[in-house]
Specification:
With 393 residues, the chain is α/β, with parallel strands linked by helices. Helices cover 43% and strands 14% of the residues. The protein contains 15 helices and 13 strands. Strands 2-8-7-6-5-3-4 form a 7-stranded mixed sheet, sandwiched between helices. Strands 9-10-13-12 form a 4-stranded antiparallel sheet. The structure holds pyridoxal-5'-phosphate. The site of pyridoxal-5'-phosphate has 14 residues, from helix 4.
């Protein structure tokens, strides 16, 4: 492929060459089934257990508390459905937020159809839920609080340690979707009082189709796929050994030196945001200015459609993402942007850029120049913009 600028790392990342190298032997050399007792099987089993320890170490857990899944979505589904099933005699109330990933939101909606009651807490203009709002939403029937660690669209980081402390005090199970936060924010599940945590390899330079769910020892986890005895009888199916090995290696690399990586990404992000807001009129930042993922910048441009912007950026060799869900064939504006108070038309004109350490300050300049040019062109064709300018005079 031609040299392109890839700034959609919140959607997925390139598999690290060291991860790929670690995975390769587990396709054609160490291909045994981890459940088998002979040498090939034992070697595969050992590799799975090494990866389990790597995942555990990265989040301050114990190896026995890690369950491998096929994705972050699966980990979210499993955590929430397991809590609902295991605790339904205790209560039927779940607390979450309006800005969760659809893997959480749609799971909660589906549980509502089964008789559970769900509170979708609003967030402030920066996308943060308040700890007081969580506290006030708690009832005698509350069995689960699920709040994402960091938002995938606008990058806002939630007050997870505070919510964890509150959940612990009230004796309520606490799950967090930490898919976007792994490798970007230091996480310690014990210190933060997290009972369950979802993650997925492909968001931090691991392979696609490999995720994990952390479940604190002592928390009942119901089985998700029935069949074989894999994952302590909780998730049947022969392990994705190579994928699991890749996940383990990737999380080890991703959490090696978070402060250094975060400092570099923050520099790219803040330079980008500053330059963009200085260059393009009628643009506004979505999400929290500081409490946000180091690599995430989401900006709304009035009077344009995000899809048009993405298409022209693609033609200029830049891969980014829009806040609206139009790529999936739906014209619904992002639920996250609506939740922080953006109007429909502002939500439609948003651009999410998510940087990686391979990006440079030169990339930032290239993107700002390209976006400024395209936004001007799109606005010059917009009757709304024309009317707006006339009214300004
Ligand atoms: C990407 C993402 C997921 C889904 O992970 P998959 O492995 O793609 O299923 C869940 N939650 C958040 C916040 C995400 O960004």
């Amino acid at each position: 492929m031609e040299k392109r600028i890839y700034v959609d790392n919140a959607a997925t990342t390139k598999t690290d060459s060291r991860v790929l190298e670690a995975m390769l032997p587990y396709f054609a050399e160490v291909y045994g089934n981890p459940s088998s007792i002979y040498a090939e099987g034992r070697a595969a089993k050992a590799a799975v257990e090494t990866a389990r320890a790597q995942v555990a170490t990265a989040i301050g857990a114990e190896a026995g508390e890690i369950y491998f899944t096929g994705s972050g979505s699966e980990a979210d589904n499993w955590a929430i459905r397991s809590a609902a099933k295991a605790l339904k005699d205790k209560g039927n109330h779940i607390i979450t937020t309006a800005v969760e990933h659809h893997a959480v939101l749609h799971t909660c909606q589906s549980l509502e159809k089964e008789g559970f009651e769900v509170t979708y807490l609003p967030v402030d203009a920066f996308g943060r839920v308040s700890v007081d709002a969580v506290k006030n939403a708690i009832k005698d029937t509350t069995i689960l609080i699920t709040v994402m660690f960091a938002n995938n669209e606008i990058g806002t980081i939630m007050p997870i340690a505070e919510i964890g402390a509150l959940a612990k005090e009230k004796g309520i199970l606490f799950h967090t979707d930490a898919v976007q936060a792994i490798g970007m924010v230091p996480i310690n599940v014990k210190e933060m009082h997290i009972d369950m945590l979802s993650l997925t390899g492909h968001k931090f330079h691991g392979p696609k189709g490999s995720g994990a769910l952390y479940v604190r020892k002592g928390v009942k986890l119901t089985s998700f796929i029935t069949g074989g005895a894999q994952e302590k009888n909780r998730r049947a199916g022969t392990e994705n050994v190579a994928g699991i090995v890749g996940l383990g290696k990737a999380i080890e690399l991703a959490t090696e030196d978070i402060p250094k990586k975060a400092a570099y990404l923050t520099k790219l992000r803040d330079t980008y945001i500053q330059k963009m807001l200085d260059t393009v009129p009628y643009a506004q930042l979505n999400g929290h200015p500081e409490e946000r993922l180091p690599g995430n910048a989401n900006i709304s441009f009035s009077f344009i459609e995000g899809e048009g912007l993405l298409l022209f950026l693609d033609m200029k060799g830049i891969s980014a993402s829009s806040g609206s869900a139009c790529t999936s064939g739906s014209l619904d504006p992002s639920h996250v942007l609506l939740a922080i108070g953006r109007k429909h038309e502002e939500a439609h004109g948003s651009l999410r850029v998510s940087f990686d350490t391979e990006n440079t300050l030169e990339d930032v300049d290239t993107i700002v120049t390209a976006v400024a040019e395209i936004v001007e062109r799109l606005r010059s064709m917009s009757p709304l913009y024309e009317t707006f300018l006339k009214e300004q005079k």
